[in-house]
Design brief:
eight-stranded mixed β-sheet, FAD/NAD(P)-binding domain, six-stranded mixed β-sheet, single chain, alpha+beta, D-Amino Acid Oxidase, Chain A, domain 2, 25 strands, 2 domains
Length: 385
């Protein structure tokens, strides 16, 4: 059993949203937090993918003085429209009369907001271009690409899906989701999005549209079998527009223009036990899932919030029992969303005879049963089972 009392140095590998949010929530006079990010700041701020943040994530960000009401880069989602191709069934989640269902922000804008808070926090420092190439978890140190050695009392690893973890941890991999990819681009539509997010299920895979800055601009995330997504990428402009209309329909009028198309592979997996010695894995390094449910970052932020509560309760002393308590609490929600994501992708991305009617009826029932619908909304907002 590892027992570390009076931690005076926490190191964080990974300067993405997970590492930065953890650091800000846990900044304290009793210890120093040092973040190591392999990219330089300019490269980090060039990533513009859209992030959908749930109500729970917004509540947690407010604790570090990031409030969407005071930042125009946060685009409210007032309605979510879910449908399937060639089906009468659809679900509309509408809370526009109260608080927004969630918010969308570009990755670079969220990083910028977090870094602004980091820079004025005297208990946190960050090293850019600090690429870690080796670790010794028994002796509590790691080395960077220049062979410089760094010791730590407590290490948070949140650097995406890295090879550094392969020799230390065992993963549970959803092999049925291993041959999926996502095509991402920004699209300009004839009609304004009116702060509506769309999820459209088709036999080839889900299509998601997230409202972003300009009133006619949305972020398209089109997922499916890797061969299908690659074929979308190879279409010329007119063919791509025609294919989009055929699959999505005319809810936003004509597709006027679209930006650069980017394709990246998807995977669904999680670490069976995300801790060893005085090291804990967080974020995408701990669990990665298909984006259909939009829960990857939101799940990580709730992980951080619960971890922070435990660390504060134990006055920032750590041992195996504390890590075990953390994981036993969070693993239930994580597995629940893994199963739901698998069901949505595999259950809706096919065209078996008769199943379309069953899915239509399911969507219709969900839209018209208030109790079920409220529970569904609560799960996606707060992770409740």
């Amino acid at each position: 059993m590892v027992k570390v009392r009076n931690i005076d140095l926490i190191r964080v590998i990974g300067g993405g949203p997970t590492g930065l949010i953890f650091s800000l929530l846990n900044a304290h006079e009793r210890h120093k937090i040092v973040i190591h990010e392999k990219l330089n700041i300019n490269t980090l701020l060039q990533q513009s993918r859209a992030l959908a943040l749930s109500a729970s994530s917004i509540d947690i960000l407010k604790k570090i003085n990031i409030n969407p009401k005071n930042d125009l880069n946060f685009i409210p989602i007032n309605k979510i429209h879910t449908s399937q191709k060639k089906s009468f069934g659809r679900v509309v989640i509408d809370q526009s009369k109260s608080a927004p269902i969630g918010f969308v922000i570009r990755y670079d804008q969220l990083i910028k907001a977090l870094l602004e808070k980091i820079c004025i926090n005297k208990y946190i420092s960050i090293h850019f271009e600090s690429e870690i190439v080796s670790m010794d978890v028994k002796k509590s140190f790691f080395k960077d690409i220049d062979n410089k050695k760094y010791n730590y009392n407590f290490l948070i690893f949140s650097d995406g899906i890295g090879n550094l973890l392969n020799n230390q941890f065992e993963f549970s991999v959803d092999n049925e989701m291993s041959n999926y990819s996502a095509l991402v681009c920004e699209v300009t539509t004839q009609l304004k999005h009116q702060n509506i997010a769309y999820e459209r299920f088709t036999p080839d895979g889900p299509i998601a549209l997230l409202p972003i800055n300009n009133e006619s601009l949305s972020k398209l995330v089109w997922t499916g079998n890797s061969n299908f997504v690659e074929s979308l990428f190879k279409l010329n402009n007119n063919q791509f527009i025609e294919c989009f209309h055929e699959q999505f329909g005319e809810r936003l009028g004509q597709l006027v223009d679209f930006g650069k198309r980017i394709v990246y592979p998807l995977r669904q997996q999680y670490i069976l036990k995300p801790y060893i010695e005085n090291l804990l894995v967080l974020g995408n390094a701990a669990h990665t899932m298909h984006p259909v449910a939009g829960q990857g970052l939101n799940l990580s932020i709730r992980d951080i919030a619960y971890l922070t509560t435990i660390l504060e309760k134990n006055q920032y002393s750590i041992d195996t029992d504390i890590f075990k308590e953390y994981f036993e609490n969070r693993v239930k929600e994580m597995k629940s969303f893994m199963k739901l994501t698998h069901f949505l992708v595999k259950g809706f991305s096919n065209d078996y005879v008769g199943i379309n009617k069953i899915r239509s009826l399911s969507l219709f029932m969900l839209d018209n049963q208030k109790l079920i619908k409220d529970n569904f909304i609560n799960k996606f907002n707060y992770g409740s089972n």
